[in-house]
# Entry
Amino acid sequence: MTILLSVLGAVIGLVLITTLGIAPNTSVIGALIAMLIGRISFAALSRMRNPHRQNLVQSAISGSTFAAANSLVTPIAVPFLLGKPGLVWPMLGGAVIGLAVDSWVLYRVFDSRLLPASAAWPAGIAAAETIKAGDEGGRKAKLLGLSAVIGFVGSLFKLPMSAAGVAFLGNIWALLMFGIGLLVAQYAPSLLHTDLSADYVPHGVMIGAGLVALVQAVLLMRDRRGRKQQADEPTAPAAGPADPADDRFRPEMRTVDATRLRRGLLEGLALFLVGALLVAFAGGVAADMGGLGLVGWVALAGVAALVHQLIVGLAAMHSGWFPAFAVTLIFLIVGLVLGIPMVPLALLVGYAASTGPAFADVGFDFKAGWLLRKGAVPWHPYEMAGRRQQYIAQLVGFAVAIVVVMIAWKPFFSEGRVPPVAQVYVDTIKAGLTDTHALAMMGLWAVPGALIQVLGGSSRQMGVLLATGLLVATPQAGWLVLAALAIRVAYSRYRSRAAARTPADGATPPEEVEAPGAAADNDLALVGAGLVAGSSLNDVSQIYKAV
# Structure
């Protein structure tokens, strides 16, 4: 079943990215299909009623979708459109390496201080709430279903309902900056009579915020922070406590400490460098750049791949949106500034583009599994075993996506069906950098991006989210984000005041009484999950247009 649904996800991703330029989140589709199959009382199909099996299936299908659409077919389209079809297979090999390392790094560092499981990861919440509502039914299922209908209908009218959904789920300060960025990008052309993208303002903000975010990530890896974490935010021991009943889930507990975070990121950098070296030799980079140029190219490609995945992952963790196209474009412009020849630059762009989306998608799926496994006792070994099984399911989805792309890329490309973003990369490479305007503007706007990121700190990622909003620039999304944030604050205050006015009944033990804030958060999470699920369903339904 996992393989069959992975084939479905890969085909959906391949068709939509080459036709409409979108890559839908199919995890909710996988969860719904698994639920329906679980209702069939035939052979072993009824086992699919288990929410953890459904979690494995949705992990695989979403992994295959993003792998095929973003991590594989987009990179190989770059050399093809550049008139170098002989480089498609070397680029595909490099994209497979980027995809594999991308997912491995996330598996190693998920639920660390840098990428905590307690963060938003909105698509993960949507998948988990969908599975839980289908399993429990009742009020949860009704609220989720109603919200999903609203999200689906709103999407039919071209409203970005997923933007409203994530506003109910993420960090308020981060999403406030995201909404502000969306509004500025929408209204700057008409009010300020300026094209922000043409002046490279969003790119500069992202460069400044991204550099500060990398420094913040390095600081989180230090041993001093690791010791502080052990005191303030205890890390679960590998073997669990002596008494399994004491090993219960606690929100402040991390499963990855500072040492493993540091090791995981350094392993990722080393593997990215090895992958870049293989791409360089397979693609003939040395012939265009010489020995010293080859060393510089490998170093830049390896660092670009790691930086790309971290920035995309941080943005997706807080907002559910990942600016992979824009961040790749930044490295393309850096390559033009450095004077990298056309073919090596195309390979650099393709290699960087292969990282990020899968990193974010694995984080979404791990978040869903983390939510579904919170009630297990003993919690820590159950959580780590479940996360490992999810990773294996993702690898199955990736393997299926690789096979599908190997078979389908030639007929697709021969018919002119290529990802639109790949055409933008190639057009930019061919046009080149005629003046220093882009470099000057990015350097200028990097300063406010860096300052905002410093003020927000590593937990809010305000600079990265502001840049994400400026780069995404989806019409009306900013208003929906700000409206949802206002509803979220108003509803939380209403629940708190209502609870203060209602006396306790005396029959329910105090420890079983749900706090007003937690009750409000649960309701808002269901609404947000439903809106994201409805929007995702509409995205997948667009395949009929493509076909």
Q: What stands out?
A: DSSP finds 22 helices and no strands in the chain. The CA atoms of residues 254 and 431 lie 48 Å apart. The mean pLDDT is 84.
